[in-house]
Amino acid sequence: MSRLQGKVAIVTGGAKGIGRHYSLALAANGARVMIADIADGKEVVAEIAKAGGSASSTICDVADEASVKAMVAETLKQFGGIDILVNNAALYATLKPRPFDEWDADLWDKVMAINIKGTYLPCRHVAPHMIAKKAGKIINIASGAPYKGIPRMLPYVTSKGAIIAFTRALSRELGVHNINVNTLSPGFTLSDTGLANTVHVEEESEKARASRALKRDAYPEDLTGALLFLASDDSNFVSGQSLVVDGGSANN
């Protein structure tokens, strides 16, 4: 039997980039997946169906509470419950690296709204359904960047550091309801959206490889094993933790 058979998972930002790989991996392991993204997720739904899995998609702006509430309601309508929440949606690939004093306030606020509030709102509206059945897995996607203090991406690094703190605090509140809350923190990963932004590849890829114990690039497939661990019963006594998957870079 697949390790997530009978489970329902939401993946925010699940239509493209690393999120697409999260959606595919969860479905391949038996979960029924709701792909919640500002982009159309129908191609991923079709890809999952072709492989024999079950998925649906809905347009969702994670920084807008009404949109999140509608997404949760649609998931319940289609699948009847929610067992796994993967808070993956974030603003990163389109951000151009720059010195700390060149980030204008509006862009700073946009990063915080999507990356922090966009993690809080799905938790806020999914958690009651997990509390009702005394079980659930919440996986917040942070980054290895806060551990290293990556320069020239200050609002992004700040927002992902906040997600690590958010996870630790929320795990305390939801632990009494038998809900696991953990963080998956990837290093710089070559996804299709990341490769499309050559600025990040040029600025970060070589430095990332040099900083790692494992001297190679990271790809989305390197992250799915950790995701499945955190989503499955294998992690039933793990909560409030940040699993850093970066080839050993944060160790240096």
Notes on the structure:
The protein is an alpha/beta fold and 252 residues long. The protein has a single domain (8-188, 219-244), classed as Rossmann fold. Helices cover 48% and strands 15% of the residues. It has 9 helices and 7 strands; from the N terminus they run E-H-E-H-E-H-E-H-E-H-H-E-H-H-H-E. Strands 3-2-1-4-5-6-7 form a 7-stranded parallel beta sheet, sandwiched between helices. Strand 1, helix 1 (17-28) and strand 2 form a beta-alpha-beta unit. The model has no long low-confidence stretch (mean pLDDT 95).
Counted by DSSP, the helix tally is 9
Round the Cα radius of gyration to an integer and report it: 17 Å
Provide the CATH top-level class. Answer: Alpha Beta
Q: Could you name the CATH topology?
A: Rossmann fold
Structural class: alpha/beta
Keywords: Oxidoreductase
GO molecular function: oxidoreductase activity, acting on the CH-OH group of donors, NAD or NADP as acceptor
Protein name: SDR family NAD(P)-dependent oxidoreductase
Family: Belongs to the short-chain dehydrogenases/reductases (SDR) family.
Task: Break the fold down into its secondary structure elements and pairings.
Elements: E1 8-12, H1 17-28, E2 32-37, H2 42-50, E3 54-59, H3 65-79, E4 84-87, H4 105-133, E5 136-141, H5 145-148, H6 154-174, E6 179-186, H7 192-196, H8 198-211, H9 221-231, E7 242-245
Parallel strand pairs: 1-2, 1-4, 2-3, 4-5, 5-6, 6-7
Structure summary:
With 252 residues, the protein is of the alpha/beta class.
